[in-house]
Amino acid sequence: MNARVKHAELGVAFLILLIFYLLPTPDGLTYEGKMMIGVLFFAAFLFITEALPLGVSGLLVMVIPPVLGVFDAREVFGFFGNEAIFLLIGAFILAAGFQKSGLHRRVAVRFLRHFGTSPRLYVLGVLLLGALLSLIMSEHGVVVLLLPIVAYTLAHMGGGENLRKAGMIALAYGCSIGGVGTLLGCARNPYTIAFLHETAGISVSFSEWAVMALPVVFAMIPVVWLSLTTVLPPERVRVETPREDFGPLGSMEMRAAVIIAATVLMLLFTRDLGVAVVVLIGAVAMFVAGVLEWKDAERAIPWGVVLLYGGAITIGKGMYLTGASVWLATRLLAITGDNPQLVLLFLIIMTMLLTEAMSNTAAVAVMLPVGAGLAQVVAGLNVLVTSVAIALAGGFAFMLVIGTPGNLITYSTGYFTQKDLIRSGMIANLWGMTVIFIVANTLWKALGVW
Amino acid sequence: MRALIPVTQEDIPWKSIERAKVLCDEVTLLYVVERKLVDLVEAEASYIIPHHALEDTENIALFLQKERAMKIHKELEDSGIKTEMVFGVGNYFHMIEKEIGDRRVDMLMVDRYTKRLSKIDIPVWVDRGGLIRECVFVVSSAVMLRKLRRRIDFAEKVCEKLGCRLRFYYTGADESVIKTLQKYGSMVRALRGDLICISISDKISKRFKNIEVNLILFQ
To answer: What is the ipTM of this complex?
Structure first.
């Protein structure tokens, strides 16, 4: 984009802060609270316009509260020293080991072969494969890993324009759906548990998260498959998956598989150690077992998301500590009313709309403090419910190309148009909304979450 | 007759491609991957996907786009049209202008008219599909008559290729103009036809830009 436009957008972002600075402090809010709401709008504007790279926006959001005298610098940087940040780093290293071993290719090709030659089943296979792999590594990383494998099959078919479209969109959707299922699937989930721990003192383990989120994943797969193959009915062509003969499991593949399996088992069955410690043990094991070298890890960690996390936790904790989230929530009640069901639905819809316009993590960062505030002022709602619902809704950006890197990467192959994505995404988004709402009202209630 | 057909992933002008099979001897197929799309992937994904992985992904995406371009190219070649394919990453309009500058093409063929095309220096064919039986050439000014000669020649060539009649619609009443035009074809009293040849600057042309009639727009 034009540098002048970017500068103008940056100017507008700072103007937002200036307006908040000059505004009189409303009743019931402190100066710090007022400025944190200003930082929230400032960040939301930067996240949407991307006047600065997202990581840099994250850094800027960390710098502004000390400059404005809202928090002490040590306090702000202290927010950053959370276990979630190490969970993120460890998860990226584990994923790098999985990729370097080549195990992903064997798993993907073998898995897709089980779906035979039917085009409809192939679309289901891609959806499931994307979702399952995104349970153990970053959803966006899975899109990158699977793209050549899925593209190979789709490119080597005679005809089948709709199958190409549906297959490629299924890859993006599958990864987005799977990404919400565990704490390893995306940066939003570790950020959410960090937010819950830092603000409400609630600890959520790997298995507790999975119990709440996996039903959403498994309910979404069939409905998204049906809607995708209805909107883009695949032609009757024969699907040929790559005929690669992988032979027996190689030594490096074996080592990577054992480490990943052991890490997941430890995550599921240990609680005392903490999620980050377990994942870091797995990450270190990748080096000890000779699967990874340091340069692999250096190449595998996207520092942008780590810095964005810093900005996100500053907004979340800052809003909470200054009382800004409760003040804002009280004002929002005029729109939402105080019915907990309607408030929850409002949060899910708002997050889904925001996540189409900005990075998923950024959308969750903006919405979590709002949700936490509402949970404090609406009887019958609690912060765990609002936070997990927001985190799940934040992953469901199905409609717009810019909604998530997965959509954009698959779109860049030229296999589908924006119109195709909007048509299929609109239905998927409605399903996403419905599924989260129903699961929250049934399963989470049965689990005693609220 | 040689046409330039620009293609993007969002807009594959199938109607123009089909028409070119009947109308053209040669086609330059320009497949454009928008630079802004490549930049957008970098901007939106680089915070979460390492740079080297993004580069690999970009290469795969370009390979797949090229494969798509090759399929369209093959379809044209199979129908007996000599087709040259140009594949590139850049700005759609800049690349069209560059190709027109670099190659001798007689017209640009598209399915959808956009305002930026009014700056193109060669005739722009906007195809809305369907059979063309009658071509009506619009003349709105006697002053322009001498300049029209080359355009009329072009329209005659098109009509010859399509096997349709060329007629004229003159908005004025100058007898000498009518006589001159009648040398090339008969006159019509009402503006009709399956193909309208009109100057972009002509006020009447605005009427046609959004309706389902084939157009040849002259600069």
So the answer is: 0.84
Which residues on A lie below 8 Å from B65 (Cβ)?
412-414
Residue A385 lies in a domain: no
DSSP A147-190: HHHHHHHHHTSSS-HHHHHHHHHHHHHHHHHHHTTSTTS-SHHH
DSSP conformation class of B48: T
Q: Is residue A30 part of a domain?
A: no
Q: Which of A299, A305, A414 sits opposite B48 (nearest CB)?
A: A305
Q: Is B24 helix (H, G, I), strand (E, B) or coil?
A: coil
Sheet holding B82-90, edge to edge: B82-90, B26-34, B2-7, B107-110, B124-126, B214-218, B195-199, B134-139, B165-170, B186-187
Query: What pTM does this model have?
Result: 0.89
Structural domain that includes position A182:
84-300
Whether B40 contacts chain A with CB within 8 A: yes
Residues A122-141 as b/e (b if ≥16 CB within 10 A, e otherwise) read: bbbbbbbbbbbbbbbbbbbb
Please count the structural domains in chain A: 1
Is residue A434 a part of any domain in this protein?
no
Query: Rounded distance, CA A367 to CA A95, Å?
Result: 28
| Number of C-beta neighbours around residue A157 at 10 A | 18
Say which amino acid occupies B2.
Answer: R
**B191: contact with A, CB 8 A cutoff:** no
Whether B91 contacts chain A with CB within 8 A: no
Distance CA B149, CA B146 (A): 6
- Taking the Cβ of residue B78 and every Cβ of chain A, the question of whether any pair is shorter than 8 Å is answered with no
Q: In this structure, are residues A410 and A172 in contact, taking their beta carbons and an 8 Å threshold? A: yes
Cβ atoms A368, A387 nearer than 8 A:
yes
Phi/psi for B6 (5° steps) reads -85, 140
Q: What is the pLDDT of residues B63-80, one digit of tens each?
A: 999 998 999 999 999 998
SS3 B109: strand
A137 within a domain of the structure (yes/no) = yes
Q: Would you call B65 and A408 a contact, using CB atoms and an 8 Å cutoff?
A: no
Which residues lie closer than 8 Å to A174 by C-beta, 6 or more apart?
A126, A127, A128, A129, A130, A131, A134, A221
Between A and B, how many residue pairs show a Cβ–Cβ distance under 8 A? Answer: 86
> Measured between CB atoms, which of A402, A415, A418 is closest to B44?
A402
DSSP state, residue B202: S
From chain B, pick out residues whose CB is under 8 angstroms from the CB of A407: none
Q: Which amino acid is at A379?
A: A
Residue A409 tokens, joined: 């990467």
Task: Estimate to the nearest angstrom the gap between the alpha carbon of A426 and the chain centroid.
Answer: 19
What is the rounded CA–CA span in Å between residue A89 and residue A301?
7
pLDDT in tens, A114-161: 888 899 999 999 999 999 999 999 999 999 999 999 998 888 776 788
> CA–CA separation, A340 vs A398, rounded Å?
26
